[in-house]
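Weekly puzzle thread! Below is a chain. First person to post its structure in token form gets bragging rights.
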Amino acid sequence: MTVLLPNEVELYGTRFPIIGPIQRILLDPFPAKVAQGDYTRDDELVASSWVQSDWSGGLGIEHGVVGETDNRYYYGTLETRFPHQLSLPPLVEKLGDLGIVDFFIDFHPYMYAFVGTEVYRWNEPTREFTHVHTLGSQVRDVEVYHGTLYVATLTSPIEWFDGTTWGTEDIDAHHLAVWNDTLYALQYDGTLRIRDEEGWVTGPKLDLPEGWATQLLTFFDPNENPALFALTKSGLWAYDTVGAQGWVETQFTFPVHPNVGRATVWQGSLYVPVGATVYRFTGDAVQVVGPDRDEGLPPHLRGWVTQVAAAHGHYFATISASESEEVDRDFIYTTYPSSDTFFLRTPARSALLVSNGSSWMILFNFPGEDDPTGALHVSNVQGAYRLWMSSRSGTYSMELPTTMHNPLKNPTARFAAEGSLVTSWFNARWPELTKLALNVKAVARHASPTESVAIYAQVDEDMEWRFVGRVERTGQVEFPLYVHSGGIPFRRIRFRLDFQRGSDDTKTPVLDSISLTFVRRPKIHWATQFVVDLTKPHRGLSVSQLRQRLEEILASPTAGTLYYYPDPDADEPERIYVLPSRAVNQQIAGTDQRGRFPMSVIQIAAQ
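Winning reply:
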């Protein structure tokens, strides 16, 4: 190209003479503040804020959407059921080593645990299990009828226990249920047996493959009357006594699945675990309500929901870990508090979850890897109201409140020793833009050096958790990030909150809110200003031609190039891509075309 003259620019391929210097001006260096999340707790005047003060929406959102998922988080084992307070979860105690318990059942005045062929009795005063009986084969189901405990087994006759003596019935069965003051037993081939005062009679057969049924239960028919139902690997069947049709398939069906867990009735609806999800059946409609909704469960909770159990105000579920599988990838990395190292396989953990009907939270992670779970049971015997569960690693129990569900309102609440929560990723609704984290604030109650909250941050694709600070006192605690490092640049960021307590299990730190102070840092844009001199011809173009070309440039919908000397001593001109933003016509009096045009162009990119 021809060398530019000192008082000349090339704009969109046309040389224009200029008058005076070329100036560069920075455009909009500091964007306006925004308040996202709980904006009522924003106390910043200039910087932007992201405030989390409610986690009651439950787990399952890894990539948060401000304004839509403000009360959600990705994964955690903290107590999140109650708005505007985050605390340690309830204390879960190991009370035995029975192995995987197939069934728990209350049979006055004790609770019994069935493990394979062995039967144990729990004694609350001594807090121990005692072996009381050996069955003929592995237990399949248990039920109490007319003051007698009946036990269905895999290959031997039904056994009964009246509190003192054990005996057997003259039939075999896999599933039991009590309905209409009658005991029903479903055999492996689908035949229904009915026990009346004189003995067992044969009822209609469930027209499905052998072993297809998974549970007998009572629910409500279309007339809202209690009825007998059979849960199967592909849906729910009703026992029709009015129309004498025997077993009738209901509208609640699902694709065949090998893992159909044990269902329960809670608040008038039937909750059925199938694979990793839970279906809610009202009698008229089916809804997916399981913990695998939204973005799904973390990979270390790979498994299936084995059982749901009803309690007051909430219902519980256990996820049983599936066996580990080798993976094709070279490695998988996890950032969850329970496992933050590289590994060649994906270890699975079993967990206890609780739901209020709309959201889910994790109450307890079973300690062993690939540790399948057993029965889940709400018990009320010997003055103790408990939730029982089991896995290969042990038999566990959690006290349930009889009055105050909120643990901070309950003076007898006991808390776990530790727990963690990982928030959703936050990108300020501008994922491509770099932001600068300046400060983290936490508002806490009941915090002390022993009851504390450690805060960690993870940024972008960085696999490490950065320690931010530890909350060890009540009130607002601030952790400035700009003091030592000038702040933390990020496109997206999330936090991990690690709670712990001291030796007193009645204490817990409480977090009311956590907020991030940040500023948005958009790309720097410069405006280049100069005055085009259209008072005389230039480079073979008349004033009229130069003006026409300038008007075409101003009307152009596309960006173009600007060549200019950035300073008088520059050896080479600079080339940038620009968009014209302003041109003022300072026309010379007495002429039609001649004039001077102060121009401003915005830099798009440099080359």
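Puzzle host: Confirmed. Bonus trivia for everyone else. The CA atoms of residues 260 and 274 lie 5 Å apart.
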